[in-house]
Inverse folding.
């Protein structure tokens, strides 16, 4: 078997070119043949299995966390394979190098990359299998393969037809083809058309298994008592009362704290509540949000590590006809996926099984192996459905898998380590808080000529295994993405972007749309400030800045036209717009808002235009945009974490508020088929909503909101 | 104690203060009912007691008494309840974790209000959080379920 490299995939892209790799070692792995006894694990290097019962099983290299990859990857296979869609079965692949991300080299799900990064690979898998099945039929019928066609799970030649299942055994014995032709887009029958999700039946009946649902005889449940302040260390603990709780079996110390292990979750919870712990809270115990904000404000007045420097920004600021300065702030945020974190670890001798809803299989496998003194290949990762990810299940240090391995090691029994909602909200790995300082100038004609931008916030990558590779010259790109690469700012003659990355013990992480979750807010709000200062229409002002970016301009115009920009909205309402490119896709949103009597911002409608290159499943794109808006709107209107004496003040959904259905606007999605390179769709819907709403509030009230979450009073 | 779950009488050995949620999940193995917050803030654990939607995470098992418990597994044997059919048709689910709770709340709403307005739906379902933000399709699916129910 050969590893699949990105270079080879790129060589294979396009139609009719030679495929330079063999998908699974040999055809027998590709086509598993007769319904043999179920194997304990799927063949580790197969993407597809066709059973004699006609089932077509697609193995996913990516995790299903709501984004719909459970449907998209089979769709790519099916387009080429020509199978019966009702015969498709889907499984998460085990952790294995064969399933490494085609761009990142490790098995993972993130960065809104799952569809475009697998676009060629899964279509090729389907085409290879079709080729084998057709060849098998040609041999059986002693005819020329070129005379046969494939339709809905059958190979057909004249009056003869054979189902894929009937041909699977024969096809299995054939050598894998060395080249396949991929269909040209005009022959597609499925790609680009709306397709409903394949995971609905399981998810609407309660049958879908999430990590938290894993159960087997002998499995115990553990809750861990962790330091109430990040960076604190355990001095001692007293488990006397905890052990008295019925169902509690063990109390063990692990590097992250003290684990209470019980026969069920409720006993573990009562046991943990009865546990007495004494922590050395460390230096962060003296820290609070106000102090951190003051530190960031002071830093923002100084030059940081230089990310962008073009022209003489100070001179241009001085010469401008109008000069604006503003400070923007965003808070720490928890991802708060609906399924609280959990991981189940079972070890038997040299074999270990891990059940986890994860975005980072490769890391988890390595980390669990390291904790247990095993080789990575001795650790079987069973990826369950993820009850939401949003980045939280992609920790470079595999925090919750590591902890579960530690607890299992200490307890000597299979354990599911579960987090409560409080653990989740207070447990770190947050979107960092940021302070932005922007100074900008307009020339006599109201055109931006200078942009000086200082960003202050923790680096997500610092201290992770990715730091050496991804932080260059003190610049963590995830802190400034969306500023340094802004299509708007590309045309501003003098600009300077610098970054301060203060070190704090608060664990931070990528949160749906990562740096764009704050940079879009700042750039698009500041542009709006400039437009109003220039006395120009916000749309016209932006279009003028996007003269050299026709794709962006088209997206913005599409959203504006469909929203009725230029026509008065209903009385008491106003519109605001924003456009942002992230993860290779361009999204514009026009939000229509009003202020309710109790001084709450109400978002009624969001008209959205999206250019993500080639759309694969419009129904999925629409869902991701709606969801991305809901996620961003939660942060715009409600969510924030604050610290007092080093402790996170919020703990659950009553004080860490997210969006509920009664605040969900009507979202209208317009997909632009630009033919450009395919981009992502899971995250790009999130960044524009906060500035679109803030700009609408300004249009309505004249009040510029520069801090998230928005507060009118 | 005895518990009537999805039409079956079950003998349950659990402390009386154990929330119904954990009895269902950890004692009886009905894992379709989800844990999300533990304090009736998110609705992931919604089940029916005599047809009425309640949060199982905040209902001590001893308080259930003789009332019939229905979980997502008992709403229908095959996903054919009008709410489930509507959910599939409208392609509501994303990660799917909150959906058993959403569906149970929606099903209870339709028994008391067969033709809910958007405002009725928002009011009834505002206790059910969906972090994926599938709300717009949830609304559409409740309307569709009302139609399916009316037509059945």
């Amino acid at each position: 078997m050969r590893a699949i490299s990105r270079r080879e995939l790129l060589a294979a892209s396009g139609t009719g070119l030679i495929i330079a790799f063999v998908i699974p070692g040999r055809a027998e792995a590709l086509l598993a043949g007769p319904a043999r006894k179920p194997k304990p694990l799927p063949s580790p290097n197969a993407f597809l299995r066709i059973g004699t019962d006609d089932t077509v099983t697609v193995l996913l290299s990516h995790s299903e966390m709501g984004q719909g990859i459970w449907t998209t990857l089979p769709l790519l296979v099916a387009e080429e394979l020509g199978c019966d869609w009702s015969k498709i079965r889907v499984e998460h692949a085990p952790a294995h190098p064969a399933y490494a991300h085609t761009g990142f080299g490790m098995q993972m799900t993130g960065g809104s990359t799952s569809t475009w990064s697998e676009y060629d690979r899964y279509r090729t898998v389907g085409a290879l299998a079709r080729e084998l099945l057709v060849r098998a039929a040609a041999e059986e019928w002693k005819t020329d393969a070129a005379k046969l066609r494939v339709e809905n799970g059958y190979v057909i030649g004249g009056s003869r037809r054979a189902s894929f299942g009937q041909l699977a055994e024969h096809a299995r014995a054939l050598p894998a083809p060395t080249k396949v032709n991929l269909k040209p887009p005009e022959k597609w029958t499925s790609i680009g058309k709306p397709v409903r999700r394949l995971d609905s039946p399981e998810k609407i009946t309660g049958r879908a298994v999430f990590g938290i649902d894993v159960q087997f005889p002998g499995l115990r449940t553990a809750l861990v008592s962790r330091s109430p302040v990040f960076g604190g260390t355990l001095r001692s603990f007293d488990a006397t009362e905890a052990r008295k709780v019925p169902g509690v079996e063990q109390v063990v110390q692990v590097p992250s704290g003290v684990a209470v292990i019980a026969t069920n979750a409720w006993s573990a919870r009562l046991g943990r509540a009865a546990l007495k712990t004494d922590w050395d809270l460390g230096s962060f115990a003296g820290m609070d949000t106000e102090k951190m904000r003051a530190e960031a404000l002071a830093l923002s007045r100084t030059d940081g590590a230089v990310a962008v420097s073009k022209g003489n920004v100070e001179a241009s600021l001085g010469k401008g006809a109008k000069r604006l300065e503003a400070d923007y702030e965003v808070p720490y945020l928890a991802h708060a996926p609906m399924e609280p974190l959990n991981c189940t670890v079972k070890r038997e001798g040299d074999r270990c099984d891990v059940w986890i809803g994860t975005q980072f299989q490769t890391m988890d496998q390595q980390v669990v192996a390291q904790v247990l003194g095993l080789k990575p290949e001795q650790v079987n990762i069973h990826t369950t459905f993820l009850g939401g990810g949003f980045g939280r299940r992609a920790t470079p240090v595999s925090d919750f898998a590591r902890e579960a391995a530690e607890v299992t090691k200490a307890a000597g029994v299979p354990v599911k380590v579960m987090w409560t909602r409080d653990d989740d909200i207070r447990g770190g790995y947050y979107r960092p808080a940021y302070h932005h300082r922007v100074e900008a100038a307009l020339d006599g004609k109201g055109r931006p000529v200078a942009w000086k931008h200082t960003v202050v916030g923790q680096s997500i990558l610092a201290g992770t295994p990715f730091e050496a590779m991804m932080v260059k010259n003190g610049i963590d790109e995830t802190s400034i993405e969306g500023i340094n690469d802004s299509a708007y700012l590309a045309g501003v003659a003098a600009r300077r972007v610098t970054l301060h990355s203060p070190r704090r013990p608060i664990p931070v992480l990528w949160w749906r749309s990562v740096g764009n979750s704050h940079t879009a807010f700042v750039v698009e709000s500041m542009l709006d400030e400039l437009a109003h200062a220039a006395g120009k229409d916000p749309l016209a002002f932006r279009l003028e800045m996007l003269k050299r970016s026709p794709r962006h301009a088209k997206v913005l115009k599409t959203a504006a036209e469909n929203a009725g920009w230029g026509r008065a909205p209903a009385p008491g309402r106003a519109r605001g717009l924003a456009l942002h490119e992230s993860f290779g896709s361009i999204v514009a949103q026009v939000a229509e808002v009003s202020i309710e009597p109790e001084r709450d911002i109400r978002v009624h409608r969001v008209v959205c235009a999206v250019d993500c290159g080639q759309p694969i499943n419009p129904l999925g794109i629409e869902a991701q945009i709606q969801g991305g808006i809901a996620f961003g709107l939660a942060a715009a209107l409600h969510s924030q974490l604050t610290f007092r004496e080093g402790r996170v003040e919020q703990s659950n959904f009553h004080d860490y508020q997210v969006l509920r259905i009664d605040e969900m606007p009507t979202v209208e999605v317009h997909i632009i088929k630009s033919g450009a390179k395919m981009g992502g769709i899971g995250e790009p819907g999130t960044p524009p909503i906060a500035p679109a709403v803030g700009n609408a509030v300004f249009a309505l009230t004249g009040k510029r909101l520069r801090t998230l979450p928005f507060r009118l009073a | 104690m005895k518990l009537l779950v999805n039409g079956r009488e079950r003998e349950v050995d659990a402390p009386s203060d154990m929330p119904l949620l954990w009895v269902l999940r950890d004692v009886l193995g009905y894992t379709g009912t989800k844990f999300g917050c533990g304090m009736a803030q998110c609705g992931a654990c919604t089940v029916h007691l005599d047809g009425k939607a309640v949060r199982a995470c905040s209902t001590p098992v001893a308080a259930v008494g003789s009332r019939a418990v229905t979980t997502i597994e008992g709403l229908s044997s095959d996903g054919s309840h009008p709410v489930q059919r509507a959910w599939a048709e409208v392609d509501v689910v994303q990660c799917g974790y909150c959906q058993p709770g959403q569906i149970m709340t929606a099903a209870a709403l339709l028994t008391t209000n067969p033709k809910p307005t958007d405002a009725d739906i928002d009011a009834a379902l505002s206790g059910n959080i969906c972090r994926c933000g599938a709300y717009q399709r949830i609304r559409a699916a409740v309307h569709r379920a009302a139609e399916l129910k009316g037509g059945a």
